[in-house]
Amino acid sequence: MLNTETSPAGGDAPAAEPRKPRRTKRILAAVAAVAILAGAAAFGSTLPDPKASDAYATLAGEKASVESERDSAKSDFASLKTKYDSLEGGMATRESKVGARESAVGAAEAANKTAEAAVKKREEAVTGAEKTKAANAIGDGTWTVGKDIEPGTYRAAGDVGSTCYWGIYATGSNGSNIIENDIPGGGRPTVALSAGQDFKSSRCGKWEKQ
Fold this sequence. Notes:
By secondary structure, this protein is of the alpha+beta class.
């Protein structure tokens, strides 16, 4: 309500201005701040300790289990690596031994091939000699020198019997042109044959070119 008191001069006095509530606002703000701080302190004092919760204990247990598995895996890996390194070293040693054995086998095979080649050469030489001997050996029958047999000296391969007969004839005479003949009756007779002759042997065995 407006103040209607009159002024001492008898006229109406002007109404007084209302006071501004500055002090009141400051007091209210201070009280509010104190209340907020007090509330915050009270709220902070009533918060639960997270480490005391079941969830934290579960997570801590899981973490410990994972760390244990990790440590076990590290240990297993170290053990496996040691075994692998050992096996790798052993493999290198075995490979070296295998290489040495392969070299020895290769050398043995080379020596065997050399020996086989030498044996084959000897066999060929023996076979060649036998073929030559066989080619230069004749038996019973009539042979034309220079055509059926080579010219040269022939000797009975063994002692002949009493029925042995040999004859040398001019080629183409059909045995009518006797150059030389004999019934040795024993021993190992020898004959000299030339080209243009026929040689006949009967019951004398083999003759060998000398």
